[in-house]
Amino acid sequence: MTENAQVGLGVNGRPCRIAVDTRTSLLDLLRERLDVTGPKKGCDHGQCGACTVLLDGRRVNSCLVLAVAADGAEVTTVEGLADGGEPAPIQSAFVECDAFQCGYCTPGQLCSAVGMLDEVKAGWPSAVTEDLAGAPDLTDEEIRERMSGNLCRCGAYPNIVEAVRRTAE
C-alpha cells in the first residue's frame, strides 16, 4: 500500500503544491511530474552528480532526496540559474571555456559549481584546504576537490576547472 503526501515547494522561483507518493525522489518529482528536465538521471545512486540541484541554496543529489523532505524548500535547477533571460556567469564561462562536450552532466556541473562557489564565499574548507583559519584559496586542486562529486564521461575536467576559476574571479 502506498501513501501520498502533499508537498509544497518552490521550483526555480515558482511555487507548486502537488500530491506525491512518499517514496518519490526529488529528481523524479522534478522530471516526471513537474516537467523540469534539466537535472539528469545518471546513476540514480548519488554517485555521478548529474542530478545535482540547489535545495535552499545547498547542492544536493536530487536522486537521493525524497520529495517529501523538500516540503517548504526552494529548489533551483539549471533552468533557474539564468537571471531574466541572461545566462548566469557560470553558464557563460562554461560556454567560453568549452567546459562541456556531450552536455549530459552539464546541468549538474553548473548547479554544483554555483553551490561550491557559495561555500567558498562562506569560508567553508574542503579536504584539501591548507589554511583552515583563513578564506580558502581557489586553486585548481581546490576546485577539483570541491567538484569531485560530479563526473564527466567526456573528460572535460580541465575546461570545467577553468570555467569555475573564471567565474570565481
UniProtKB/TrEMBL annotation:
Keyword terms, alphabetized: Iron, Metal-binding, Oxidoreductase
Membrane-traversing stretches: none
Domain of life per record: Bacteria
Record domain 2Fe-2S ferredoxin-type: where: 5-81
Gene3D superfamilies per the UniProt record, alphabetical: 3.10.20.30, [2Fe-2S]-binding domain
Keyword Metal-binding appears in the UniProt entry: yes
Protein name: 2Fe-2S iron-sulfur cluster-binding protein
Native organism: Actinomadura gamaensis
